[in-house]
Amino acid sequence: MRMVDIIIKKRDQLELSQAEIKFFIEGYTKGEIPDYQASALAMAILLNGMTSRETKDMTLAMAHSGEVLDLSNVVPITVDKHSTGGVGDKTSLVVAPTVAACGLPVGKMSGRGLGFSGGTLDKLESIPGFRSDLSIEQFINQLKAIGIVLIGQSVDLAPADGKLYSLRDVTGTVQSIPLIASSIMSKKIASGARAILLDVKVGIGAFMTDLSEARKLAELMVEIGGMVGRKTVAILSDMNQPLGKAVGNSLEMVEAIETLHGAGPADFKEHCLLVAGYMLALGGLAKNEDLGKSLAEEALMGGKSLIKFREMVQAQGGDIRYVDQPSLFTKARWIEQVKAPQSGYLAEVNARDAGETTVLLGGGREHKGDPIDHAVGLVIEHKVGDWVKEGDVLFTVHANDQVKRDKAVSKILNAHRWCDEPVDPLPLYYGKIG
Ligand code: URA
Fold it and tell me: How far is Cα 208 from Cα 84, in angstroms, rounded to an integer?
């Protein structure tokens, strides 16, 4: 078999066989297939799509590119969650400790920032010392000991996704339903989750901008989960405006810690409780998601989620003083508050512009493996539908470069669209599948 023939076949809109998909994934994982051929195939898949059979084969090939954990002897059940990626989406940082604090173990493999959307690992690594590169043995031991562990893509679990994910980030091949579905589901299968809650984001700041496309992605992932015997539910949630206020790694970490302390923005807290409620229902700790949500709220407001988060940070080498005192996080050199230039109702706060601006400030990657600046980003004060008075604080830019700061100010001013008439707030959800 030759890689070039596989690329040509997909370029010509033909269906790849299971053997061809396996050949690509195994060869790419071993380093026998170079990045340029993998990029060409990723682009052909993005342009021409894949059938659900091809996507399922791709998912399983990626899951089996490393070890596939069986945690049934370690904990009774593990539930995982995964977001398809959004702007200001720091949900895992609050949800994972909340669910674990309720008694349901969470062993989660998270990703890094991808394109304009942030990644949980990049956020966690803004805590000095925090390690996400645990071995499988360490992953299992920590899950057993404290019921929570959050790791990165390891060389042992779904390594094919690790390589492909960073390649897609810099080759314009993120927005593809089969590539996203196989990337997410391969990680979930490899890390041993028995039940999975998928948070499928839809809107201008998501990879799926269209509701029907997002629904297709959700349905495909729920179908793949079912095929491999994992209870899977997907919710469709809004990503037209940033979730919460903070966008950028340590700023989001601080917002998540504030939420764990019982404060934090209302939309973000509501989203975390909903996701946690579904996970608790999936894991059998609550009869339904509403009861799960109440359990989660008790844990969050009673301080148990914070204690669990602190335990996890400590177990993974992070400096817990940052959890107790978020003011310790390194600040950017320029912190510029921008006031509303007029009064009016907000008709749009463009999440995509916010994500792209954070990348421009240095908070995301332009090239595979680039270092990122954890301190930079934005704090956006208002939501669609808010009435804002001229002179109120509209947003704050955190920058380490003056030219980038000025560009960010103008881009985020333009990301706000005004209206004289009242505007309805955006819904948080558009439904569930599974
Ligand atoms: N999240 C993932 O894990 N993979 C993708 O491809 C997109 C979002």
Answer: 9
Distance from C-alpha of 3 to C-alpha of 40, rounded to nearest angstrom: 10
**What are 120's two structure tokens?**
């949980």
**Residue 396 vs residues 244, 248, 376, 423: alpha-carbon distances, Å:** 14, 12, 11, 24
Q: Residue with the nearest Cα to atom 3 of ligand 1? A: 184
Q: What is the pLDDT of residue 415?
A: 98
The residue type found at 207 is F
Evaluate whether 286 touches 295 at the Cβ level (below 8 Å).
yes
**Active site annotation includes 183:** yes
- Other residues' Cβ atoms within 10 Å of the Cβ of residue 394: 20
Compute the CA torsion angle 355, 357, 362, 365 (nearest 10 deg): 50
For residue 281, pLDDT over 70 is answered with yes
pLDDT of residue 155: 65
CA of 207 to the centre of ligand 1 (A): 9
Residue with CA closest to ligand 1 atom 8: 84
Q: Evaluate: CB of 114 within 6 angstroms of ligand 1.
A: yes
The verdict on whether 294 is a catalytic residue reads no
Question: How far does the centroid of ligand 1 lie from the alpha carbon of residue 238, in Å?
Answer: 17
Q: Give the integer Cα–Cα distance in Å for 329 and 126.
A: 8
pLDDT in tens, 47-73: 999 999 999 999 999 999 999 988 888
Ligand 1 site, residue 246, Cβ cutoff 6 A? no
Active site (annotated) includes residue 389: no
Angle at 72 between CA 70 and CA 77, to 5 degrees: 115
Task: Report, in this order, helix, strand and coil percent for the chain, each rounded to 5.
Answer: 45, 15, 35
pLDDT of residue 384 exceeding 90: yes
| 46 pocket-lining for ligand 1 (C-beta < 6 Å) | no
**Whole-structure pTM value:** 0.92
Q: Does 168 participate in catalysis according to the annotation? A: yes
Radius of gyration of the chain (CA): 21
Q: What token pair was written down for 418?
A: 């005004």
Q: What are phi and psi of 148, to 5 degrees?
A: -155, 135
Q: 294, 269, 266: which is closest to 280 by C-alpha? A: 294
Q: What is the 3-state secondary structure (H, E, C) of 126-155?
A: CCCCCCCCCCHHHHHHHHHHHCEEEECCCC
181 lines ligand 1 (CB under 6 A): no
